Amino acid sequence: SMLLNLATGHQLAVTATKIADMHHYHRFAIRYEVTPINFDGSLQIHSAIDGQVTNGNVDRYNQFDQRHVVVDATETDATDAWLTGHTRHSNVHFAIGSRLSSPDRVLSNAVDGTHTTNAARQTVNLAVRAGHTYTVDKLVAVVTDHDGERADMALTDRVRAELQQGYPELL
Length: 171
Known about the structure:
A 7-stranded antiparallel β-sheet has the order 1-2-3-10-7-6-5, with helices on one face. The protein is mainly beta. It is built from 1 helix and 10 strands; from the N terminus they run ββββββββββα.
């Protein structure tokens, strides 16, 4: 949990809860609970699956090419986002999918999605009131061709199935 003081003078209380378990190792989730402290207005929560992220936090690795992933496709659809790709050197194919939801409200009309050749991005747009808490859950599923599926479409179907299962017992 943290209290954010924005440059506008607005304050937000934010709690993030991360969930992963070894039994459902293809799925993990994060729940954001956001409470505007001193303002009414609009709030945007951004989410992305980004295929251009690099591992640049270890100095001795910075001399090497940090691009390990080739993105094959990205897509957004209402509350879902997708990225498929493969590793450059070992040619492991993978699919990553995410689903945004809320226990408080239906998000399908509140989410704007865009995708580029390397990323799928979503923005949740909320009208907020001071003192009220707004919850957004992001469920993520990751599957590789080491899990038995070979074609990108089969990987995407498997990710869709994992997202459909959700984490109702944990969230």
